[in-house]
Design a protein that fits this description.
Blueprint (H helix, E strand, L loop, with lengths): L2 H20 L9 E3 L5 E3 L7 E6 L6 H12 L1 H6 L2 E7 L3 H11 L4 E4 L4 H5 L3 E6 L2 E6 L2 E5 L5 E5 L7 H13 L1
Parallel strand pairs: 3-4, 4-5
Antiparallel strand pairs: 1-2, 3-8, 6-7, 8-9
Length: about 180
């Protein structure tokens, strides 16, 4: 098995294990990453508050831009429900800064350049595009409750109506 194939097999195995665990509501893996505001952000910083973490492949690509702008456009609704939103991608902070400025994003973007957090959450996997195979982020969203438990997970996210689905899940939790 080549190094790339072995990594892909490991990532797929981790993803399957995480999906199986998610059905049983599991603790969200803790992390600390550099944030677009110059701070280091950890999951534990959000204890006592609901959190939406969305993983996306790359700043300033059409689909990732639409996803970020959808979260931006619904930011008032998330705030009203006392839910924080953060985005995580493998991009450098400099790229995040430009992305935030260009699209007026009101939430933090975290930089996972070595994709350790993405791997921990099971969203770093083998992808295929035009016959080419490569490792990358599988667009995914996690809803984490006040105790740090993943209560809902969306993988292989399709952008249309996704943010509304996230809001609907939050509203179900608060009823």
């Amino acid at each position: 098995m080549t190094g790339k194939t072995a990594k892909a097999a490991k990532a797929t195995k981790v993803t399957k294990a995480i999906k199986a665990e998610t059905a049983a509501k599991r603790k969200a893996p803790d992390f600390t990453l550099p944030a677009s505001d110059g701070t280091q952000v950890s999951l534990k910083d959000y204890r006592g508050k609901k959190l939406v973490i969305y993983f996306y492949p790359q700043d300033n690509t059409p689909t990732c831009t639409q996803q970020a702008c959808d979260f931006r456009d619904y930011n008032g609704k998330f705030a009203k429900l006392d839910v924080a939103v953060i985005g995580i991608s493998p991009d450098e902070l400099k790229s995040h800064d430009k992305f935030i400025e260009k699209h007026e994003l009101p939430f933090l973007l975290l930089s996972d350049t070595n994709h350790e957090v993405a791997e921990t959450y099971g969203v770093w996997a083998l992808k295929k595009l035009y016959g080419r195979e490569y490792m990358g982020i599988v667009r995914s969203t996690f809803l984490i409750d006040e105790e740090g438990v993943i209560v809902k997970e969306w993988t292989k996210v399709r952008i249309k109506n996704h943010v509304q689905s996230v809001l609907d899940a939050i509203e179900e939790l608060t009823q």
